[in-house]
């Protein structure tokens, strides 16, 4: 285990499978995991040459228009994939864009333009090719992929059958290694993708829905279970750094507590959370927030509106009270001291980004960043604010805004 993972232990929890729990008390902002993907694939259609030309096909950094002309390199064989540098191009040949994958993508692209495949199918085809490419190039990472949760039951019969026969009939040489390629394996792999793929998102914009740039399989982060009020959240810095994922604690937790992410933005209502978790991940969520919200009488058609109203009212009430005590108790795990009707309202006030349409989660900067004697952060794009050692700076994992934590 690396230093950054020292605070986590992998355990088995009945009804939840593998889980990560705090093996020591963890502090808000603490980095508990840094994970690199074993497999990445683009989130745009197979046939969309236009979109793919905006990103490096290896490191997924955005190619600024001037860089496309000056320094980017095209794959000499398919000329469809672009790389941000000769280095990325040469790394790709032995990994993400091997000659086998290059050839297979080319053939599938030709074929699928006449099939008008849905975007979902195109992305699943991309994943399958990337997974078989991994089997060829890195058998140990492929075994890791196979060890993740998810099998053919997560995906049904029709999609694997269709994609498997598409790949078999189109690819010049069967996916490697010889003898591995089978319908059962393809179905199991698609199940792994469904339960474990993380989206690397486009930068946030207030005016457009946020889209996914690429999907990745992060083997260690795949052990985090979901909670609708997570105590940790993930960050990535694809354009400024690399495709690694960093998981930071949102607030302090005691030793023994399970560390969970939310698999989607925390603002969704009870019914849509339950639907999504059942359809996409195959479980009914029974977290503390769901237990409370399941009792609400407004879980009907217009529940979204009603919940939002109720939430707003509760949040306002709570903000008017002296809420610090409530949350501090909750952060330390003293359940029961919060409002019985809506014990998690404080989470939204303190840990949900209030920027328009963002719905990101706020986590303190890692402790080392806040021990700098004086740092200047940009809050809400406009004001430069001096932040000193005693102030917690919270970072949004969606829009990247930095904000003073008024509750410290
Ligand atoms: C990414 S995996 C998480 C790790 C997984 N528990 C394992 O054993 O590898 C996602 C799967 O974990 C399980 N899971 C995640 N959160 C859960 C929760 N809150 N309650 C029950 N099962 C959960 C579901 O089976 C889900 O499809």
UniProtKB/TrEMBL annotation:
InterPro entries: ASHR2-like, SET_dom, SET_dom_sf. It comes from the Eukaryota. Residues 298-333 have a biased composition (Acidic residues). It holds the Pfam family SET. Residues 6-264 form the SET domain. Residues 296-338 are annotated as: Disordered. This is SET domain containing protein. It comes from Trema orientale.
């Amino acid at each position: 285990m690396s230093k950054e993972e020292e605070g986590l232990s992998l355990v088995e929890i009945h009804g939840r499978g593998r889980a990560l729990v705090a093996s020591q008390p963890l502090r808000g902002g603490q980095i508990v995991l840094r994970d690199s993907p074993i497999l990445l694939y683009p989130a745009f259609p197979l046939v969309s040459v236009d979109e793919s030309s905006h990103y490096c096909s290896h490191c997924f950094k955005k190619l600024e228009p001037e860089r496309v002309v000056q320094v980017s390199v095209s794959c000499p064989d398919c000329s469809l994939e672009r790389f941000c540098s000769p280095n990325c191009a040469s790394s790709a040949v032995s990994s993400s864009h091997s000659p086998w994958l290059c050839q297979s993508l080319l053939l599938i692209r030709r074929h699928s333009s006449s099939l008008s495949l849905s975007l979902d199918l195109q992305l699943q085809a991309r994943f399958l090719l990337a997974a078989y490419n991994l089997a060829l190039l890195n058998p140990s990472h492929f075994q890791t992929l196979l060890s993740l949760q998810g099998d053919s039951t997560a995906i049904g019969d029709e999609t694997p059958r269709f994609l498997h026969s598409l790949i078999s009939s189109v690819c010049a040489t069967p996916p490697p290694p010889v003898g591995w390629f089978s319908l059962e394996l393809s179905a199991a792999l698609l199940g792994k993708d469904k339960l474990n793929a993380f989206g690397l998102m486009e930068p946030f914009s207030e005016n457009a829905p946020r889209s996914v740039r690429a999907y990745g399989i992060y083997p260690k982060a795949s052990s985090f279970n979901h909670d609708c009020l997570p105590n940790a959240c993930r960050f990535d810095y694809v354009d400024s750094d690399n495709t690694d994922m960093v998981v930071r604690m949102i607030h302090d937790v005691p030793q023994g507590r399970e560390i969970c992410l939310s698999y989607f933005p925390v603002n969704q209502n009870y019914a849509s959370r339950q639907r999504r978790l059942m359809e996409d991940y195959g479980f009914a969520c029974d977290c503390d927030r769901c237990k409370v919200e399941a009792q609400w009488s407004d879980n009907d058609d217009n529940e979204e509106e009603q919940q939002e109203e109720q939430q707003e009212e509760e949040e306002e009430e709570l903000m008017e009270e002296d809420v610090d005590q409530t949350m501090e108790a909750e952060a330390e795990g003293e359940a029961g001291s919060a409002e019985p009707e809506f014990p998690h309202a404080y989470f939204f006030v303190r840990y949900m980004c209030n920027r328009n349409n963002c719905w990101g989660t706020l986590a303190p900067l890692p402790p080392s960043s806040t021990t700098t004697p004086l740092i200047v952060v940009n809050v809400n794009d406009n004001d430069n604010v001096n932040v000193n050692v005693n102030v917690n700076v919270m970072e949004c994992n969606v829009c990247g805004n930095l904000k003073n934590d008024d509750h410290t």
